[in-house]
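Lay summary. Proteins are chains of building blocks that fold into shapes, and those shapes determine what they do. In this project we predict the shape from the chain. Here is one chain we studied, written as its sequence of building blocks.
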Amino acid sequence: MTREIDPRLKELYDKGVPIYSISRIDSINNCLYGAYLTYKLHKKGSNNVYAIMGGKIHDILEGITNGENTEEDLLPAMQAELEDMDTLDISFPKDAKGGDSIREGWITDMEHFCTTYKAPKSKNLSTEELFIYQTSKGYYLQGYIDLQNLKKKGLDIYDYKTSTLYKGEDLKAHGRQLVIYQMGKEQEDKQVDSVAWIFLKYVDVEFMGYKTAKSKEKTLLTKTIERKKIGTELEKYVERDLIDAGYDEFDTEIYLNEFKKTNKFECLPKEIQAGYKMKPCVLKYEVTDEVKQECEDYINTTIEMWESLGDNVKNYPPRSFTKTQKNGKVVSDIFFCTQLCSHSKECPYLRDYLDTLDKTDNEDDLF
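And here is the predicted shape, written in a compact code that computers can read:
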């Protein structure tokens, strides 16, 4: 979606001030050579399927919030984009067996999202709003916030994700994006009450259920579930509800099979449906003073390093193609390079590494 240049950005551009983004900062840390191609040689490269599909979903969600689209536009838009990807031979990664389970799983999750999505009810929403943040060392960052809920005194910030839930170290790495959003708005003297991701491939389901098979009383439970697994994850709870409601073994099996096939509560009897509430998967990220300082240091350190490298390509080595596991074993680590990097097809370092792997494989062959 094309944007007009904001006057605040134009003023900085006219002064020759370099403006960064958190994605650029992350790119520099992911692979210096890839960042060199993008930001020094200005090579666009090629988008990966996740970026393209995620961008299309984001655009339609923005249109829905702004009254330019409806919920019914989501599925056709996604399907049309998938067809374009097939035409352009842009594909999902293969699974370990060389199959299409990753593609099929992503599509199943997102088709479920597209056919069950309900727009937020709040009337005070803002989409794709620009922020500009100046660090303590005078560097500038800019970005656009997917969704804001503007309240009387403060605001909540949301970022849509079509990826897998973040866990462990990924939380900190991806959390910096939300942190910079908050710091950017706070620099505008705005009160930010919360920042969060909305993971579109997942749902939070609230229901009264038995904690264990032996429990005699129900309690309020909440489960975060990948959309394609709703039926299997909740099967035992729904089965007990059907039995408690008086459905016989034959009818119960029919309902459960359809539930596992569609992952939708609408296929269940209304009295069973009423006991389950499906909500967006919203994962809040806690922003403390320590978290802000870590993010600030990460940005300043990265920019200082980047601006000290000059124009010599030798100063921009590629990321490592291997990693060392806890047991000391060195293994290949090229998923980012082959599936997510926009320069994978033109990277000589990656090509040489893959050639080395091919030669090693050939040496293992008897004939």
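What the prediction tells us: DSSP finds 13 helices and nine strands in the chain.
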